[in-house]
Write a structure and sequence with these properties.
alpha+beta; single chain
Length: about 240
């Protein structure tokens, strides 16, 4: 029969933990802290991400609306000076009056808006920006032959608007699909809360809902439908950005 080992008295302090036990406890504590921290970060990201996206969309939409207003003021001043909004005839007048080296030829929105810079009505390019996958911030460089280069214009321009027109006639809009008479529903959804930004002839700027097909309704009908009173029965002469 073996002899029992001597036992410590009841009031004796417990023996100190071994180095291995200390390392094990430290590791478990650190793992718990890191795990809880990761969970907390994921929860916060899930809560704040929609707010951040919404705030960014609001900022993008406000910027596009403000820029459209500035374009409207410039177009109004241009019409006062040259008798109409930018077109092929005014391009020649601006060229003759200013001797600007800028290329005012072409049918793009960039070429039409370039007349506003050549005529010195505008001293910057920044108002032609609206956020989109193909647009970039204008560099405000328009020395020599450079001005409103590819990607620096996000607004589609409606050419051929007569001097006498309904006040709700669209002049400038974004985001339109290039070469088409429909709005870019994906860009609108991503940046503008499913809205299109429309500058009208009375200088008002509206945000109008873009449906999944890319249509915008105005007075119950497609905004770009020739039957709209302001189009006079013909398709609007759209000039898309480069």
């Amino acid at each position: 029969m073996s002899t029992p080992l001597p036992q410590p008295p009841p009031n004796a302090p417990p023996p100190p933990p071994t180095a291995a036990a200390i390392r094990s406890q430290t590791w478990w504590r650190w793992t718990l802290i890191v795990g809880l921290g990761s969970i907390l970060m994921l929860l916060l990201a899930g809560i704040t991400s929609p707010l951040v996206i919404r705030s960014r969309k609001k900022s993008d939409l406000v910027e596009a609306v403000n820029n459209a207003r500035q374009i409207g003021l410039a177009l109004e001043e241009f019409e006062t000076s040259y008798g109409s909004f930018p077109n092929a005839a005014t391009a020649k007048e601006v060229k003759a009056a200013t001797l600007s080296p800028l290329d005012l030829s072409g049918s793009s929105a960039n070429a039409c808006f370039r007349q506003l810079i050549a005529s010195e009505i505008l001293q910057a390019e920044s108002m032609f920006y609206a956020r989109g996958p193909a647009s970039r911030k204008p560099d405000n460089v328009f020395t020599g032959t450079r001005a409103l280069e590819k990607g620096e214009v996000a607004f589609t321009y409606v050419a051929g608007i007569p001097a006498v027109r309904p006040p709700d006639t669209p002049l400038v809009m974004t985001p339109l699909l290039h070469g088409k008479h429909t709005f870019d529903a994906r860009t609108s959804s991503r940046f503008f809360f499913d809205k299109a930004v429309i500058l009208q002839a009375d200088q008002s700027v509206f945000t109008m809902r873009v449906d999944k097909s890319g249509a915008v309704l105005h007075a119950g009908n497609n905004l770009l439908d020739p039957s709209q009173p302001f189009w006079g029965g013909t398709k609007p002469d759209l000039r898309w950005p480069e």
